[in-house]
Design brief:
The complex is a heterodimer. Chain A is an alpha+beta fold. Chain A has helices at residues 18-38, 45-48, 63-72, 102-114, 132-159, 162-186, 192-222, 228-238, 240-260, 263-293, 298-301, 307-313, and strands at residues 42-43, 50-56, 79-83, 85-93, 122-129, 189-190. Helices cover 65% and strands 10% of the residues of chain A. Helices cover 50% and strands 24% of the residues of chain B. Chain B is α+β, with helices and mostly antiparallel strands. The chains are: A alpha+beta, B alpha+beta. At the A-B interface, strand 3, strand 4, strand 5, helix 5 and helix 7 of A face helix 3, strand 22, helix 13, helix 14 and helix 15 of B. Chain B: One of its GO terms (biological process) is intracellular protein transmembrane transport.
């Protein structure tokens, strides 16, 4: 049996260090924005488009040796798949800064394929695939995201209070910014799977923040005589066991995905791992601190006497 | 504070588990890579060919592991994609042109599951392989087509109404009606305004004998026309894809002028492109009898009111400019043999309106010659000066000229086709309907299934191992309650899979991201409850009170967190496209399901475990 985490009596002063935490986060966010602005994300072929090369062989071929030949010929990150039959192969090359014109490029590919490969390879077609999908997706996706943020703002503002709504969105922006910043820093490839992971990070961050806020609201009702900072600290401490356990279980799945999931899922898993770590940090150190700094206290949360009715149920 | 549920709640949960399990079941039967052989004319593969197939494949050591005969076709199932591809190659080489050899993935769902409509969920391109086309619809052509239609309509209707005009000139985006006097113009304008309100805008130009009317499309009407054109193209594409026999195709609008076509499991891009890219339609025009066609061909100038066409053999023919009937009214087409001539023919069915128009115009023209014009639009990419240029080519050809012996109605036949194969192709293209606006393929992607398969296998393995680790952790940490949470978690996955299968939603990699998040959320719900129960126990509550207290306290937290996530997911679903939608679908389903499993189901099990005991001294949590 595992020992229980017991933070029932703990009273770690998280909020007392809120200025350090917030300053730390602001520095990290600024660094992320700076990295995104200067280095940018290393967008994968989903976003950038690339060149399609169709080749034909006289006999059935294996794909792995072809990938290796292309690698050796200087075409890293090429996607190689069958195209209709086992003799026709479609190669997708990501665009590069120093790409020669189409004719030269196809020659280079052909040379790479002829070097040590099966004889009789024939170049059938070279076609440039534009990044239009990526752009459209970025626009549409961005809009969808903004609408989603509004939805969250409204719901949290109605169920809690507008300061909590702003706080939860801030925590969310914080988590996404740092995750993206991480990708700008490491220059890991940012493909569709990573985009999906970022969406998942948003969901996770939201879940985490709401849990803490919910406890703060409850604490204000129970701990009637305590100050705002104490009430919030107590809420973070009370939810600490839950925060750690949930992060641990989620990270267990993600680590399995990272270690065993294969190259295709690597970036996806990394994005989620970073997102979960950042999200855990922000739900402990930032979510409550942001709410406090926005001016949340008992008065804004429990303004009317009708709350007294609910009070009866709470022992 | 009693820890029991009414019996109906248990019954409901049991029912949900049985239904969920049943509809999740089709997913454990894998799909077989298969080769489909069909006769392109009759659709039925005869005994003779069937035995040839057996012999050829046997000789190559490529015997399929199962052969089925849906609708007289041959469906050969293989145990690997490699063997499937090789078999298709061999068969294509061996069989004549009358046989179509297509690659497909055949579901192996047992009969009794199919009977209750149990189908496996569809896997997206990223997981399963297939082709992806992005097609651009030329919406400017919509204006051109509309202007053409109005020009023809005005010519006829203004005459019918006895409204005098000189001529109508069609521009690219507008048309100009010229009048001999301002009075004529004023009369025509009154009538036009009344009949085309909201459709067209009219501007008066010029004075006296120079009077004219500039006609343009109303902005709102144009938007509507474009919307309809895009819709018609989508439905036409859908019909064509159905002809290809692809399972679960995705055909969706993207942006304002684009259509995404995804054909999972299809590896034969060339054929897919042929069917998607080529469009064919028919037009019926009267032959301008008495005009000198060879002279017009020589000078390149057709007399007023006529257009120069060519027949199959290259002979020029002059047809009236006015179209009697366009292909838009064709509802059905089939190929066969004409009874009178014995040659290949296409039998055509018209819709009600088309039949009315056609019988009227043919009745007016009995005894005269009518031509059938075959119009084909193809998008081709050609290389010019080292650059790839994409262009649409439109070919118009007179395939048949016949004397109208009697008014033609809803059903009639076209002859004059070269071969039965051509008749068959024409029928297929006509069946697939006309496109409202020409399209070109902007992007084409092929994802190999062998590459995808490896990814799925590794991904699935790692997810399963991750789950086992989580479950182990939960049992070690929460003991009996951990076991209960694990059951709920597993159930959660079964429910998500069964709902995705029932909805026939497509699972993609982003969808899997959604599921991973749902697992996190579902575990979190249980962690919140269990931590609360522990807290209540520490506060000195009795075990029974702690259980009900824990569930009650955690409920508002779980509800708030989940509803917020659900709102975000629903909004993403409504406004997002492609991968974002895929993520949002699984997340929305997952959040709702996890509320049910993590709160209701675990509570039911806890109730069954602890609710009946009169006195519990301690909880294994």
């Amino acid at each position: 049996m595992l020992p229980h985490l017991n933070f029932a009596e703990s009273n770690i002063n998280f909020l007392g260090r809120r200025r350090i935490a917030i300053a730390f986060s602001i520095v990290l966010i600024l660094a992320s924005v700076l990295l995104l602005a200067t280095r940018g994300l290393n967008f994968g072929i989903d976003f950038t488009g690339g060149t399609l090369v169709e080749v034909g062989y006289p006999d059935a071929v294996e794909l792995d040796p072809i990938r290796q030949q292309l690698d050796e010929g200087g075409f890293e990150r090429a996607t190689v798949v069958y195209f209709g039959t086992s003799r026709d192969v479609l190669i997708r090359l990501p665009p590069r800064a120093d790409d020669p014109d189409q004719a030269e490029l196809s020659n280079q590919v052909l040379r790479a394929l002829e070097a040590g490969g099966p004889d009789g390879v024939e170049l059938r077609r070279v076609e440039f695939v534009g990044p239009a999908v990526g752009e459209e997706l970025r626009e549409q996706g961005g809009l969808a995201m903004i609408y989603a943020l509004f939805g969250i703002l409204i719901y949290v503002a109605v169920r809690f209070e507008w300061r909590f709504a702003v706080g939860s969105v801030l925590a969310l922006v914080h988590d996404v910014a740092l995750t993206l910043g991480f990708f700008a820093l490491t220059q890991f490839e940012f493909d569709l799977a990573v985009l999906a992971a970022v969406l998942a990070v948003i969901g996770y961050s939201l879940n985490d923040t709401i849990v803490v806020y919910d406890r703060i609201r409850e604490n204000f009702r129970i701990l009637r005589k305590e100050g705002t900072e104490f009430v919030m600290n107590n809420a973070v401490n009370k939810t600490l066991a839950r925060t750690i356990v949930t992060s641990t279980t989620t990270l267990l799945v993600l680590l399995a995905l990272f270690v065993l999931g294969g190259a295709a899922l690597n970036n996806f898993a990394i994005a989620l791992i970073v997102g979960v770590l950042v999200g855990t940090y922000s739900s402990i150190f930032i979510a409550a601190a942001a709410a406090l700094m926005l001016g949340v206290d008992r008065k804004v949360l429990l303004p009317v006497k009708k709350e007294g009715a609910e009070q009866e149920e709470t022992p | 504070m009693r820890n029991t549920y009414p019996v109906w709640v248990y019954a409901l949960i049991a029912l949900a588990i049985v239904t969920g399990g049943l509809y999740a079941l089709p997913n454990i039967f894998p799909e077989d890579p298969a080769v489909q052989v069909a006769n392109s004319r009759t659709g039925v593969v005869d005994e003779n060919i069937a035995s040839i197939i057996d012999v050829i494949l046997g000789a190559q050591g490529l015997t399929p592991h199962r052969i089925e005969e849906p609708d007289g076709q041959k469906l050969l199932r293989f145990d690997s994609a490699e063997r499937q591809l090789r078999a298709a190659d061999v068969l294509r080489g061996a069989l004549d042109d009358d046989h179509v050899v297509a690659l497909s993935l055949a579901p192996a769902t047992p009969e009794w599951l199919r009977a209750i409509n149990g189908r496996p969920m569809s896997l997206g391109l990223d997981l399963r392989g297939g082709v992806h086309f992005l097609m651009e619809v030329d919406l400017n052509a919509v204006i051109g087509t509309a202007m053409e239609r109005y020009t023809n309509e005005f010519r006829g209707r203004l005459r019918e109404e006895r409204l005098a005009f000189d001529e109508i000139e069609r521009g690219a985006r507008d048309l100009m009606i010229r009048f001999a006097s301002e009075q004529d113009r004023a009369q025509a304008l009154t009538w036009l305004r009344r009949n085309y309100r909201g459709e067209l805008n009219f501007v008066e130009r010029g004075l006296g004998a120079d009077s004219s009317l500039e006609v343009t499309l109303d902005a709102e009407h144009l938007t509507e026309l474009r919307r309809l054109a895009l819709q018609q193209n989508i439905s036409t594409l859908r019909k064509r894809v159905d002809e290809l026999g692809v399972a679960e195709p995705i055909i969706a609008q993207q942006g304002e002028s684009r259509i995404v076509v995804q054909l999972p499991g299809v590896q034969d891009t060339a054929r897919a492109k042929e069917i998607l890219g080529a469009t064919a339609t028919l037009e019926f025009r009267m032959v301008a009898e008495g005009e000198d066609a060879p002279a017009a061909a020589a000078s390149g100038r057709a007399p007023a009111g006529t257009r120069l066409y060519y027949e199959r053999d290259g002979a020029p023919v002059l047809l009236q400019r006015r179209v009697m009937l366009t292909g838009d009214y064709i509802t059905g087409a089939s190929s066969g043999i004409a009874q009178d001539t014995g040659g290949p023919a296409v039998f055509i069915n018209l819709d009600g309106q088309g039949a009315r128009i056609f019988s009227r115009v043919t009745a007016e023209n009995v005894g005269r010659l009518m031509a059938t014009v075959f119009i084909e639009t193809r998008t081709e990419t050609t290389e010019e000066d080292g650059e790839l240029v994409r262009r649409t080519s439109r070919s118009e050809e007179v395939i048949n000229i016949a004397r109208i012996n009697e008014p033609l109605g809803r059903r009639f036949q076209i002859t004059g086709l070269e071969s039965t194969r051509e008749a068959h192709n024409l029928a297929l293209l006509l069946r697939a309907g006309a496109l409202a606006a020409p399209m070109s393929i902007v992007e084409e992607r092929t994802v190999g299934p062998s590459l995808g398969q490896e990814n799925i296998d590794r991904g699935m393995q790692s997810v399963i191992i991750g789950f086992i680790a989580v479950m182990l952790f939960m049992v070690l940490y929460y003991r009996v309650f951990g076991l209960i949470a694990n059951f709920a978690l597993a159930l959660n996955l079964v429910f998500i899979v069964s709902i995705l299968s029932m909805l026939q939603a497509t699972l993609t990699l982003p969808g899997i991201a959604g599921i991973v998040l749902v697992v996190g959320i579902a575990v979190d719900a249980n962690v919140l409850i269990f931590e609360r129960i522990r807290e209540e126990l520490r506060n000195g509550m009795s075990p029974k009170a702690a259980i009900s207290g824990g569930y009650e306290r955690a409920f508002s937290t779980i509800a708030d967190a989940n509803v917020t996530t659900l709102i975000a997911a629903v909004v993403l679903f409504l406004f997002g496209t492609g991968p974002i939608k895929g993520f949002a679908i699984t997340l929305s389903i997952g959040v709702v399901v996890s509320m049910f499993t993590a709160i209701v189901v675990t509570r039911a099990i806890v109730n069954l475990t602890y609710g009946r005991q009169r006195r519990i001294t301690r909880l294994a949590i």
